Amino acid sequence: MSDFNTLLGDIDTFVWGPFFLIPLLLGTGLILTIQLRGIQFRTLFVALRHGLIDPNDETGEGDITNYQALTTALAATVGVGNIVGVATAIAVGGPGALFWMWVTGLVGMASKYSEAFLGIRFRTTDSAGEQSGGPQYYLERGIKGPLGKILGIAFTLFAIVASFGIGNLTQANAVATGLEDAFGIAPNVSGIIMFVCLGAVLLGGIQAIGRVTSAFVPLMILIYITGAITVLVINAEQIPGAFALIFSDAFSGTAATGGFLGSGIILALQMGVARGIFSNESGMGSASIAAAAAKTTHPVRQGLVSMTQTFIDTIVVVTFTGLVIISTGTWTNGKDNAGTMTADAFSAGLPGHWGGTIVSVSLVFFAFSTIIGWSYYGERCVERLVGRHGALPYRMIFTVVVFFGAITELETVWTLADLANGLMALPNLIGLILLSGFIAKETHAYLKFDPKLKASPTDVEKFLQEQGSDWK
């Protein structure tokens, strides 16, 4: 078994290494950023307003509102990576790793926009009358010939594996650990609680998932950010120095200090990109599955809303975690303490046991929300393989697996989950590059017509007719 774990670890290291997935992820994001003329910078405030403030578009076809699609995708991505993943990146790569997480997030916004745009553009109606889309559809429908079909099937298979790994077992284990640390609840009890709660949500399908995440996700992020802001206010004098470390170490490496052994530029970049993608999932294609269920009058509109997910996840939540860790000095504790580093940082910055409690409770919320979001991703991929009749069995198996995740040691599963994440991204990234011209053409045309996303449904319908678009 140890030889198998070593082999898996070596493969995972190569896939997420500086010569394979990392340049492909960053390169794809840069290509799309150029093709889309910096869409993440030009339209960010319009996208945030449309997704968070404007009334939801109820006229387009879809199963949930654009806001619910956003929170469902956020539920799947704001997870363990925002707490433990950030700590691991900084513990191994130094403070400079946070800079590369930012870079990954910024270029990843173009990737996330493109995925969501394609998810809506090539979505289809399933046998139950619900909208279904994502890379498992747009790779095949957008790229003609056998290549598109191969890429679509590859994504589908890897996504199903990932849904049980990174989307279930590892998250359930994090929930159980968090509840045990914070409240002394036994893992088997946590497993039963999650089994019941998850089953109740999944019985209602995407509508129930959308309702739960739209109420649950903003609250969990608010609680965590409030705790982080409090720590940063208390340590305000350390913030300028923290930013100086982040920028200097990103390009010079970090010297050994305390329990931190030191790192070079390549290690900071590798950890920053790998943990950044683990956190926001830009380039992986998964969030487009949730986007495809949204009610919208045009793919560009929902693509822009979905793009803000990466901004919220990485530029907001990840930044707060990283600044708390660096400003309190706990980043020097060493990589062996990465698992508790964020909790240690909050405890150092807040009186009594409040810091550790906030992190433990946030970890529980973040991880359980990820389980909910990924259950939908996996279900849609199973449906793509075997049809709608596979949805109920998948939900039942997924719900049972969450119990075993709570009570099982998961070293091998973590590696498999990380590997499946990387392999899932590969066919999607190839597809994004091949379809980048198509994405740019339709995006530029729509934003020229409706740059503020204020056009009425009637005007959008007229625009589609003038463009000769076959999208409904």
TrEMBL record:
GO CC list: plasma membrane
Membrane topology: Multi-pass membrane protein
Entry's localization field: Cell membrane
Coiled-coil segments: none
Molecular-function GO terms, alphabetical: amino acid:sodium symporter activity
TM region(s), chain numbering: 14-34, 150-170, 182-203, 215-236, 242-269, 311-332, 352-377, 397-417, 423-440
Keyword line: Cell membrane, Membrane, Symport, Transmembrane, Transmembrane helix, Transport
Chief location of this protein within or outside the cell: membrane
Name of the protein: Alanine:cation symporter family protein
Organism: Corynebacterium hindlerae
